[in-house]
C-alpha cells in the first residue's frame, strides 16, 4: 500500500536506527514503502561529491576535520558507523554516485540537499553533471537547499529537475518567506515543522509550492501537520509513518 495521504521522506536514511547517511541506513529505508530518500551533499578537495550532513567529519566519524580539506580516498579511511554503536563499525562514507545507483536500483525518488554551497564553488554544476551522467529520471529528483541563490543557479541552467527551498526556524527573516518570488524558480518550500500553520500551507499551495516539513519523528505532531494540509514529511523514522 502506498502512502496515500502524504509523501514520506526518509531523512538521511532510516537514521533513527542506523548511522545517518550510510549504506546500511539507506538500504533499510529503501526497503520500506517510502516515497523519497533524503541526502546531504558536500564537495571534497579532489572535486568529488560526497554524502554527509555536517561540513566536518567530527560528529559522525572517528576522525576530525573539514570535508573540503580531504580527498575522497582520505575520507573513505574513516569509520562512520562507530559513533552510533559498535555493531555499526565499518560503515564508510558514500560518494554521491553510489547513492544514485542505489536509488535507481530501488526505483525511488531522491531529495538532494546541497549543504553550505558557499564553501564549494561549482558544486551545482558538478551535481547536474553527475545526475546527467547517471541518467536518472528527472521526475525522480528534487534538489533543495537553505541557500536560495544556489537553487536559483540551478534553475537558471534550464534543467527540469524539481527544486526546493528550505526554511530554517533559526533565521527570523525566513519565517516570512516571499512565496510568490520563490515560486518563480522552485516547486517545494520545505520548512522546519515548527513554522507550519494552515495559512503557511495554503499560501504555498496558492503559488503551487509543495510543503514537506522537517524533521517530524512523532505521530502526534504529524497528525497536526497533516491537518494543515502538508504534502509530505521528512522523518528520521520512516518506519513509523509508512505502511511497510
Ligand atoms: O531535508 C530537510 C532537512 O534535512 C534540513 O535540515 O539540518 O537535517 O539537513 P538538516
Ligand atoms: Ca538535510
Automatic annotation (TrEMBL):
This one is known as Glycerophosphodiester phosphodiesterase
List the InterPro entries.
Answer: GP_PDE_dom, PLC-like_Pdiesterase_TIM-brl
Where in the numbering of this chain does the GP-PDE domain appear?
6-244
> What organism is recorded for this protein?
Staphylococcus lloydii
Annotated GO biological processes are: lipid metabolic process
One Pfam family cited in the UniProt record for this chain: GDPD
Top-rank taxon = Bacteria
Q: Which GO terms describe its molecular function?
A: phosphoric diester hydrolase activity
Amino acid at each position: 500500500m502506498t502512502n496515500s495521504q502524504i509523501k514520506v521522506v526518509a531523512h538521511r536514511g532510516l537514521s533513527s536506527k542506523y548511522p545517518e547517511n550510510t549504506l546500511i541506513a539507506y538500504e533499510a529505508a529503501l526497503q520500506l514503502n517510502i516515497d523519497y530518500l533524503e541526502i546531504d551533499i558536500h564537495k571534497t578537495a579532489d572535486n568529488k561529491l560526497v554524502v554527509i550532513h555536517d561540513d566536518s567529519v567530527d560528529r559522525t566519524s572517528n576522525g576530525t576535520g573539514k570535508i573540503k580539506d580531504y580527498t575522497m580516498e582520505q575520507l573513505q579511511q574513516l569509520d562512520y558507523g562507530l559513533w552510533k554503536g559498535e555493531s555499526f563499525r565499518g560503515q564508510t562514507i558514500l560518494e554521491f554516485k553510489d547513492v544514485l545507483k542505489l536509488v535507481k536500483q530501488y526505483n525511488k525518488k531522491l531529495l538532494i540537499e546541497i549543504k553550505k554551497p558557499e564553501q564549494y564553488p561549482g558544486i551545482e554544476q558538478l551535481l547536474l553533471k553527475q545526475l546527467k551522467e547517471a541518467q536518472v529520471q528527472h521526475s525522480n529528483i528534487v534538489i533543495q537547499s537553505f541557500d536560495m541563490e544556489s537553487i536559483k543557479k540551478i534553475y537558471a541552467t534550464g534543467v527540469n529537475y524539481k527544486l526546493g527551498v528550505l526554511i530554517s526556524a533559526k533565521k527570523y527573516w525566513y519565517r516570512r518567506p516571499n512565496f510568490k518570488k520563490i515560486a518563480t524558480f522552485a516547486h517545494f518550500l520545505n520548512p522546519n515543522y515548527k513554522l507550519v500553520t494552515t495559512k503557511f500551507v495554503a499560501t504555498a499551495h496558492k503559488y503551487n509550492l509543495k510543503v514537506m516539513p522537517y524533521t517530524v519523528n512523532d505521530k502526534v505532531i504529524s497528525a497536526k501537520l497533516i491537518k494543515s494540509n502538508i504534502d509530505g514529511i521528512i522523518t528520521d523514522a520512516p518506519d513509523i509513518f509508512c505502511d511497510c
